[in-house]
Each structure stands twice: as C-alpha cells, then as structure tokens.
Amino acid sequence: MTELWRSITTWGAPPSFNMGLDEALLLSPDAQPTLRFYSWSPDTLSLGYFQKYAEIPATQKASAVVRRLTGGGAIHHVNELTFSFTAPQNHALYRGNVGMSYTRIHAAIAKALGHFGVQATARGRNVELDSENPDTGMCFHKSSCEDLIWSNRKGVGSAQRRTKGRILHHGSIKLDTSPLEGDIATIKQVAGDIEPAQLAAQLIEAFQSELGLSFEVGVPTPEERHAAHQLGLRYLSKEFVQRR
Prior knowledge:
This protein is of the alpha/beta class and 244 residues long.
C-alpha cells in the first residue's frame, strides 16, 4: 500500500517566498509529508548556508541573491526545476545513513529523466567531470558521489537540513544552463526544450513507482503561507545574505 503525500507547486515565486515556504514546511511538526515543485522569479542565486558571500563571483551578476538553509554550493535558479521533500526524520525515505537517502531519491529522479532520453547515473567515486571548477563556489561545478551526471557533467544536485525531528531535502534539476553555470549537464542537450511542469509530472510517476508514495494535489495552508511570508523577510535581509 502506498503512502499518501501532498504535492504542491509554486511557479515563478519570489525568492524570499520560496525559501520561506521551504523553512515553514520544515518547521511544521504536524504537516503532512509534502513534495513541492517550484521555480523562481526573478532568476536567483542561492548561496549554501556556510558559503562566504564575498568569495562567490556570481553574487555580482545574479538578479537576486538569497542564502539557503542547506549547505553546498551556490545555484543559479533559472532554466531549472527546483523540488523539495519535507517529512519527519524517521520516515522510511530517510532510513539508513544520510548518503542512502540521497541515493534513494536520486535513483527515482534518474528514472524520470530516462523518459526524456537522459541517461543519468550517480557520479560515484574516481570520476573526474568536465564540469568541475571548484574555484567558482557553484554547486554544479563541484560534485559528490551521489550527484546525478550525464555527458560527464553534473546535472542534478541536492542538499538537506535536519532539525527538530524533521528533514528538508531540496534540489535542482537543470533544464538548460545559464551564463553563471556554463558547461554543465542539462536536459535540453538531450531532449530539447522541456517545461518544468512536464518534468514534474514524470517525477511524480517515478516517485510513486520507485519510492512507494502516492500524491494528492494540494496547496500551502493559510498558516504555511503566513509563515512563509514572515520567514521570508529574513531572506530579503542584506545582513542575512552577507552575514558570513
């Protein structure tokens, strides 16, 4: 028997609301496990929680900059689909060590990408990617064993935040590249132009078949929206973005 999750979409949302809603869902102890798909307006650079603003050249070129609750490198949120899972930490999706949960989620994403002819695989060990350029501080220029790659380049990156018995796992799947990310793996290279909603539909199918989940379409509750707007005020703060 599959477990029922809520699925919500927020297309073209402001960066402060996007980060505020992820945090609101993470901090809601009674919230139904939720899968969220979203995109950004304007294009936004999100810094990893521990990155130093002054050391990331792309901060001078993006239309907006926010700091994520999760670690990892900076991501230019444009020409992509962003997704997030929020659920209790004891959920079966996160059983085993941290790396196993990444592997489990990324395997389902790889199945969805296969629908578009993208042969995505986990990077694994002892692989030197053509997209590596760690001096930029960009997520897609540095990879880990669990990241998904194709064309010997990184095309999917994820990060997690675990707190108070809850987990937020969010990530980026590249539909196309941008001037800030350059020569990375994208779906467009293989399948041409794909809309975020098209990819989201395939991901739903893969998460159902591979993770044993089922989904009902929902929306953020009024309380979650209020919390997202309130929490989002911090993401608009120059002091918060540049605090490190």
